[in-house]
Amino acid sequence: MHDRKKSSTSGSEFFVGLVLIALLMFLAWYFLLRPRDIEVNTIQSPDATIVVPGDDTLEKALERIELTPIPGNTPSPTPRPTPTPVPLDITYVVQEGDILSTIADRHGVGVDDILAANDLADPDFLSIGQVLQIPAPSGP
Prior knowledge:
By secondary structure, the chain is mostly helical. The chain has a domain at 90-134: Membrane-bound Lytic Murein Transglycosylase D, Chain A. The chain is built from 4 helices and 2 strands. It has helices at residues 11-33, 58-63, 100-107, 111-118, and strands at residues 90-93, 131-134. A two-stranded antiparallel ribbon has the order 1-2. It is elongated and about 105 Å long.
């Protein structure tokens, strides 16, 4: 087997190295990269004049503010209308024991409306399994 010479730094040497690197990085930032202070009042224009009123205070400025009155009868927003569902025609299959007046009452329509929608001549003649179109109710 090989006898290798082990070289390692102790923990304190490693820590000192890290501190030195951090110090060098801080100094580089401080002298080279940090933002410089901005000088105030460096405008070189003859037209630039600043007028500072001598006795003006916040309280006096607030006294000069005119409030716009709110009208007493502020209109409320108009509510949006909700859409009324449009009733659709229903397809109904005649069952044993059904009569046209019962079917009409069950769906809220008149017997004449069902007769007209299905081109039926006789309201008493229905056959089991017959398909009827029930029109949408006309309203209250």
